[in-house]
Amino acid sequence: MSGEHDDQDSTQKIPRMEFPEKKLIPVVCSWCKKIYKLSSWQVSQSKRTGVSHGVCPECLAKFEMEQQKIEQKKK
């Protein structure tokens, strides 16, 4: 039997591993609907991504000004 090949496969099956990758996700302003930045997220390769929502600096400034006006009227 020396010199004969073993018919059994001795390789091991390695489970499929998913490595996270960085994806750029657009962040959309909930008020004016503009994309105001791209955010980097680590997600698995098979994961589908969409958009994220927030408030852009311009809309935040408008909101803060309105809040100040409301507070001044209360005084």
Description:
By secondary structure, the protein is α+β, with helices and mostly antiparallel strands. It has a single domain (20-74), classed as Dna Ligase, domain 1 (2-Layer Sandwich). Helices cover 24% and strands 31% of the residues. A hairpin with a 5-residue loop joins β1 (20-29) and β2 (35-44).
Task: Produce a short descriptive summary.
With 75 residues, the protein is of the alpha+beta class.
Mean pLDDT across the residues is 81
Number of strands: 3
This entry's quaternary arrangement is single chain
- Could you tell me the radius of gyration in angstroms? 27 Å
CATH architecture: 2-Layer Sandwich
Strand content: 25-35%
User: How many distinct folded domains?
Assistant: 1
Shape estimate: rod-shaped
Helical region count? 1
> Quick one: biggest sheet?
3 strands, mixed
Q: Which blocks of ≥5 consecutive residues have pLDDT under 50? A: none
Order of helices and strands: EEEH
The CATH class is Alpha Beta
Q: Going across the major beta sheet, what is the strand order?
A: 2-1-3
The helical percent reads 10-25%
CATH topology (level 3) name: Dna Ligase, domain 1
Q: How far is the N terminus from the C terminus?
A: 100 Å
